[in-house]
């Protein structure tokens, strides 16, 4: 088909030299795809390099401690990806003798692997004609064919998947999938794409009807909830502090954080001081409280905005279960906590 041929010609000239494009090894392709979910290449590339150096095979990753994986992942966000990565590595190494399934259906059964990753692995590693559909592909197809169906609706997901499946080059699905993703990422960009150098400029319906900025259509998500976090940064007379591991389901499951007091609104000094007095770690001891950041640090997640204050709590007695300050960098923490640790010069 003309679309596929034009796309492949563009890709042969414009593709970026990326390490995961030098292999068809399922482990490396899987690793790159998981890292690049909801992450741009520029940010994800250093993580891919570090992961492949630290864990050169699925067996190395499977044998790692979860804390090691989370620490190496620190800064990428969406930590469930890292936990699922580790779970799947252990399953593949221990139950499948280190061999990833060679087809879409069985790949889809692995934890953390959805339609997009299963399609990418099946096509790139095993030459199966399974079309990938990610944000870049949605944008290219919505503009080229001028499709108004919202990409985040069940109807849209089905419609775009079917269209991509019709367009894929069944003789060389790996190149087609990588080409259309690359085209969306570097040419048909979300904002102000340079349509004058686009190989599809004459046949793109959105360009010829002046609809580039309107497409793709997306249903607006619910407004993010506000939460107010107050982290107590304890420092005792032995230069030790306290980190607590988060348990249960949640965005930061198994990561470490400073003791937290959550409030219904942003706290002033008097209110937080009274709340701190009741904290079990202080247990009636005297302490000196000071606010590190006068303005709330707003950490934006997909479904909630965390308005955060860090309170320094100096105590004269030795804290129970405390850790030396110089060991704090060895713990896996959310990027919000990590940024504070760097700025506070622990």
TrEMBL record:
This protein's UniProt keywords: 4Fe-4S, DNA damage, DNA repair, Glycosidase, Hydrolase, Iron, Iron-sulfur, Metal-binding
Record's cofactor remark: Binds 1 [4Fe-4S] cluster.
Presence of the UniProt keyword 4Fe-4S in the record: yes
Ranges in a coiled coil: none
Cofactor: [4Fe-4S] cluster
Entry keyword annotation includes Iron-sulfur: yes
Domain HhH-GPD: 35-186
EC number annotated for this UniProt entry: 3.2.2.31
Reactions accelerated catalytically: Hydrolyzes free adenine bases from 7,8-dihydro-8-oxoguanine:adenine mismatched double-stranded DNA, leaving an apurinic site
Pfam families documented for this protein: HhH-GPD, NUDIX_4
Role of this protein: Adenine glycosylase active on G-A mispairs. MutY also corrects error-prone DNA synthesis past GO lesions which are due to the oxidatively damaged form of guanine: 7,8-dihydro-8-oxoguanine (8-oxo-dGTP).
Family: Belongs to the Nth/MutY family.
Protein name (record): Adenine DNA glycosylase
Species of origin: Mariniflexile gromovii
Gene, per the UniProt record: mutY
């Amino acid at each position: 088909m003309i679309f596929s041929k034009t796309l492949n010609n563009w890709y042969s000239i414009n593709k970026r030299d990326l390490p995961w494009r030098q292999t068809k090894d399922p482990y490396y392709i899987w690793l790159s795809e998981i890292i690049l979910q909801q992450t741009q290449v520029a940010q994800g590339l250093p993580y891919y390099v570090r992961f492949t150096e630290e864990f050169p095979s699925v067996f190395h990753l499977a044998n790692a401690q979860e804390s090691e994986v989370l620490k190496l992942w620190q800064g990428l966000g969406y930590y469930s990806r890292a936990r699922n990565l580790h779970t799947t590595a252990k399953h593949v190494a221990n139950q499948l003798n280190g061999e990833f399934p060679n087809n879409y259906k069985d790949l889809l059964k692995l934890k953390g692997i959805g339609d997009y990753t299963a399609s990418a692995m099946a096509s790139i590693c095993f030459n199966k004609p399974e079309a990938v559909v990610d944000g870049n592909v949605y944008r290219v197809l919505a503009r080229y064919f001028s499709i108004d169906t919202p990409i985040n609706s069940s109807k849209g997901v089905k419609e775009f998947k079917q269209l991509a499946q019709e367009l894929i080059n069944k003789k060389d699905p790996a190149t087609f999938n990588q080409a259309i993703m690359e085209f969306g990422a570097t040419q048909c960009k979300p904002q102000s794409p340079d349509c004058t150098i686009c190989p599809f400029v004459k046949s793109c319906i959105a360009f010829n009807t002046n609809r580039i900025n309107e497409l793709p259509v997306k249903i607006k998500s619910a407004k993010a909830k506000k939460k107010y976090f107050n982290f107590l940064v304890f420092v005792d007379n032995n230069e030790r502090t306290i980190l607590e591991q988060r348990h249960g389901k949640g965005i930061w499951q198994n990561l470490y954080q400073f003791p937290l007091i959550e409030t219904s609104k942003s706290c002033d000094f008097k209110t937080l001081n009274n709340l701190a007095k009741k904290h079990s770690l202080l247990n009636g001891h005297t302490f000196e409280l000071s606010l590190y950041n006068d303005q709330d640090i707003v950490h934006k997640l997909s479904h909630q905005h965390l308005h955060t204050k860090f309170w320094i709590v100096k105590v004269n007695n030795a804290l129970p279960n405390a850790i030396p300050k110089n060991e704090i960098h060895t713990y896996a923490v959310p990027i919000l906590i990590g940024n504070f640790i760097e700025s506070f010069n622990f």
